[in-house]
Amino acid sequence: MPLNSPDCHLLIVSDLHLSEGRDEHTHRISRNEDFFFDEEFARFLDYHVKFDPDRKWHLIINGDFCDFLQVISTEFDPEFLRYLGVRDEKEARQLLQIGKQSTRFGFDAGPGETVFKLWKILDGHWMFALALIRFLEDGNLVSIGRGNHDPEFQYEVVRQHFRKMLVWFRANKTDAQPSPVAIGKFERSFAEQIQFLDWFYYEPGLIWAEHGGQYDEVNSFPHWLAPYLPHSDHIEMPWGSFFVRYLFNSIEDEEPWADNMKPQSRFIEWFITRRPVLAMRFLFGNGRYMLKKIAKAWRPEPPSNPRKAQHEQRRAELAKEWGLAEGMLAEFDASQAESVLRKPRGTWRLIKVLTRGWRISLPLLAYVMITVLVGGALIVGQMIAPAMPWGIRRLLGDAAHVPVIAQTKSLLLISRYFTFIYLLCALGYFVWQLFPHPSAPSYLRPKAAYVRAKLGVLYVTMGHTHESDLSTLAGDGEYFNTGTWTTVISGEEELFSKESELVFLQVLRGPQVTCRLMRWYDGAHEPRLVKLFTDDLKQSF
């Protein structure tokens, strides 16, 4: 049965994005790391444990807890071998069933590979792990939801190893060494205190929590409750995951904050306009590998895809477990966004053509770049020709009659005309950017209103967007977005004007239930209300 104890206060966080963290021996942090708040998170938990000694807490990590996409190491360190109880890497690979594969961008998204990545994450964030252990030892509960960066928590073997690793850390990374009897007690209690959420957390009449990535067509999975490739046990990655694994991981040596810019489209625009040389170097380098992978992912769903039936079966089981009508849960399922890899619409159709034909698209792009350079040189030359000395003009005129140059003269003129077209397009884009573009309310708000109307819960909370949000829903309901525990950048390394980091939702039970969107202020050792500003566009639900 689900852990939804009405006796516990609730702490809800999302989008922690723990990756490889800090090496315990070198004390160096992985350049792919986004979570730098292990000690702050420990103090955050300790504060709440002491806040109300008479009532326990239920911590809900509402998706994107671990960023498996950004673990690129493939080395089996001795401590991990000791944890597995094997002698060498060969035995470890056999035990985890990790076969031969390209490790250019880290291991693939299979069950054994994810166990390895999970160890890297927890070992690199041992202070976070120990804080979670203390929280559990105090008798509190933990629920871990899945997001688009950690769908691998769907694997039962990964869930088992998560609990097992916490027990191992308790026995090997703390000053007090527990006895075998105590270790057995930890194993039993952690099995009861930790649950994994396949989709949502729900308390009738009170709250609905889900990550929200399934409402984003770029990051949605075709069959979220069975998110595997049609005929494999490996995860079927959405479009956005390809960018994280192959783009962000490749360029973070030079731009470590690349994936902190949200949304991804904003970073791509910044990347192309501000770092064009690096962008071209990536596109004609590792980018070819990414395009090859994406081209392969534009696949129609097989007529007899077993994942669809597994998804529907698990959906029916969830409805029964949480006391929901199966038809209602099917409606929620149908309201989610279609993956652009399955049903591209609008611009995505063009992107599909370009990525599937990447072997033609890249040479075409190279041609555009060459025509801009050549055509631009011709235009500049024509503009400054009157100011040139007579001798240089005659020399250039004689050069124009050289056979090789004369034969390419038409091509050069075409390049000049094309360059004019490119410049006009660029000018039009620049002028369009000068006009104000008011930001619309989060696309998750109407989804929250829909859930509120169907279930009658007071509160709906999601994450995914990395932007904290709060809005009222019909009938005194409220929607919250818990932002992230990473640093959010809006462009040019400037922070958003509103607070989106270290944000959480606090639900306190008592004579009356209170629900507040808070931010952890570590310097003050206390939480405070998040500062949110009025939207440019007013909209109520």
What key attributes describe this structure?
7-stranded mixed sheet; 19 helices; 5-stranded mixed sheet; 12% strand; alpha/beta; 541 residues
Task: Report what the structure shows.
The protein is of the alpha/beta class. It has a domain at 359-434. Helices cover 45% and strands 12% of the residues. It contains 19 helices and 14 strands. The strands form three sheets. A seven-stranded mixed sheet has the order 4-3-2-1-12-13-14. A five-stranded mixed sheet has the order 5-6-7-9-8, covered by helices on one side. α1 packs parallel to α5 (126-137). The two termini are 33 Å apart.
Mean of all residue-level pLDDT scores: 85
* Largest sheet: spatial strand order: 4-3-2-1-12-13-14
Task: Supply the helix-strand structural class.
Answer: alpha/beta
Shape: globular
Gap between N and C termini, in Å?
33 Å
Estimate percent helicity. 40-55%
Radius of gyration: 27 Å
Number of strands: 14
Beta-strand percent range: 5-15%
- The stretches of 5 or more residues where confidence is low (pLDDT under 50) are 491-497, 536-541
By DSSP (H or I, 4+ residues per run), the number of helices equals: 19
How many strands, what sense, and barrel or not for the largest sheet? 7 strands, mixed
